[in-house]
Amino acid sequence: MTLIFRKARAEDLADIVALLAEDALGQHREAVSDLTPYRRAFAQIDADPNQFLCVAERAGQVVGTMQLTFIPGLSRGGARRGQIEAVRVAQAHRGSGIGHAMFDWAIETCRAQGCTLVQLTTDKARPDAHRFYEALGFTASHIGYKLRLDPPA
Q1: Residue 127 and residue 73: Cα distance in Å, rounded?
Q2: How many whole angstroms from its chain centre is CA 99?
Q3: Taking the model in full, what pTM does it have?
Q4: Number of Cα atoms under 13 Å in the Cβ half of residue 13
Q5: Secondary structure (DSSP) of 87-139
Q6: DSSP helix/strand/coil, 17
């Protein structure tokens, strides 16, 4: 069956959040019962031309998602970067080549957007994902840090 990559629509939101909540890390971070904060975030993403929230669809069903961010910068001679985040493939479809196809599409999309570098972050607790990214040619060349902030009062 054909895999279709397209920009996410508001009606895809419940499927996307369900994918984010499906794995071990996401089940403690995501709240599929209340889509209100996700609707606000979706509206911001959808309105930003440097954001592309993608769904992978097969036979009318959302089977994967990822978010691409196109980042203009001064370093590397004014290079534009592609950032890939929130990659998920539906559990029932893992191991079927969807993830590889998603990354082929994402890398070509970044190239078409003028990016000269594609980057991503991944949680240390995801060794299978690390192996997957390395098999695609990504290198663990940097150390990433995150600082968690409380929401404004």
Answers
A1: 30
A2: 11
A3: 0.91
A4: 17
A5: EEE-GGGTTSSHHHHHHHHHHHHHHHTTEEEEEE---TT-HHHHHHHHHTT--
A6: helix
* Range 121-126, long-range pairs (CB < 8 A, 24+ positions): 121/85, 123/25, 125/24, 125/25, 126/25
Q: Which tokens is 60 given?
A: 């009318």
Q: Residues 68, 134, 59, 55: what is their CA dihedral angle, to the nearest 10 degrees?
A: -10
Tens digit of pLDDT for each residue in 87-141?
Answer: 999 999 998 999 999 999 999 999 999 999 999 999 888 889 999 999 999 999 9
Residue 59: exposure state from Cβ atoms within 10 A (0-12, 13-18, ≥19): exposed
- Are the CB atoms for 107 and 95 separated by under 8 Å? no
Distance of CA 86 to the CA centre of its chain: 3
Helix (H) or strand (E) run with residue 52 in it: strand 51-58
